[in-house]
Amino acid sequence: MYGQKIVTPDIPGVVKAGTRVEVIREGFEGTEGPIALADGSVVFTENRADRLVKIGTDGAVSTFLEKTGGANALALSPKGELLAVQTAPSAIAVLQPVKKVLADKFDGKPLNRPNDLALARSGNIYFSDPGAPAAAGTPPPAIPPKTGFYWLDRKGKVHLIADDIRRPNGVALSPDEKTVYVANTAGEYLLAWTVQPDGSLTARRDFVKLAGFKTTPTGPTSGADGIVVDQDGRVYVTSTLGIEVFSPEGQPLGVIKLAKQPQNLAFGGKDHNQLVIVGRGSAYRIATLTKGVDRPGK
User: Fold this and answer.
1) Which domain holds residue 161?
2) What is the pLDDT of residues 250-283, one digit of tens each?
3) CA 285, 214, 32, 248 torsion-angle sign
4) pLDDT for 126-157, tens place per residue?
5) Which of the ends of the chain has fewer CB neighbours closer than 10 A, N or C?
């Protein structure tokens, strides 16, 4: 598939059959955490280079910010603050306009290695901490790293939501922000919680079964990583198969395959009707029939 022209299947309301998967650029030093800016351009983390990269609405690529504290995921607040999950050192922090740490500990202990976050309009933040991944090609450690899925409330307090997800990864909110989705890279299901008025989470459940789940020499994996939702509440999850698309009710709608396994994605473009995907050092763009949610960030 690599080097060949790749097109999408027909997914009603999402993409027309034969829509080209456009390669924006390859060769990045890590690709994660894309979000859309107000003008439709997309910023993502080139994490191994410790910088943020901007993809303009015309496809032009430029450096957006250097020295990000090992940023791995991004969010925008309604006030225009750029937030990040940082890994060097580990923290939930504001990068712009004024740098500040929002949280770097839970229960008095440093965060392990946070990965992704979702910021609600209310100011509540939900983030994952899967711990440091095992080196490529090595078996998983005898004692798995401590993991967590957390809620950082509007008063700055961190609450543990779950510590039994084998590898919590991508985090996203439904359009009405009444549901939080969490990817489990090592699990068979995309998880979901119901958001209460105070921001706390209840009613944990297996939302959808991922077709990309398989057993490998290093253990079971779905490859579930980034998540994004569209204006109609459809859920897009990157996995070992590509991008798995589900209805708001959890029905599988189709899979968009790419040349390389995707890691994360966001809606961008002037009308927010382009799906921008990053993964394995590459960035792609797909014209869609739908749009992203009308709120800051992803």
Assistant:
1) 22-287
2) 999 999 999 999 999 999 999 999 999 999 999 9
3) positive
4) 999 998 765 555 566 556 668 999 999 999 99
5) N
Collapse the DSSP code of 49 into the 3-class scheme (helix H, G, I; strand E, B; otherwise coil) and give the result.
helix
Residue where the block lists tokens 């910088």: 51
CATH code, domain carrying 74: 2.120.10.30
Three-state SS for 68?
Answer: coil
**How far apart (Å, rounded) are the C-alpha atoms in residues 279 and 31?**
5
Do you know the residue count of the chain?
298
Name residue 191's amino acid.
L
For 130, 201, 276, the CA distances from 168, given in Å and listed in that order, are 5, 16, 22
Q: Give the separation between CA 217 and CA 72, rounded to whole angstroms.
A: 27
Beta bridge partners of 107: none
Q: Report the SS3 class of residue 15.
A: strand
Q: Tens digit of pLDDT for each residue in 35-89?
A: 999 999 999 999 999 999 999 999 999 999 999 999 999 999 999 999 999 999 9
Q: Which residue, chain included where needed, has tokens 């901007």?
A: 54
What's the total number of domains in the chain? Answer: 1
Q: Which residues contact 168 (CB under 8 A, 6 or more apart)?
A: 115, 128, 129, 130, 147, 148, 149, 162, 182, 183, 184
Query: From the CB of residue 182, how many other CB atoms can be counted at a distance below 10 Å?
Result: 29
In this structure, what is the dihedral angle of CA atoms 27, 33, 36, 37, given to the nearest 10 degrees?
-90
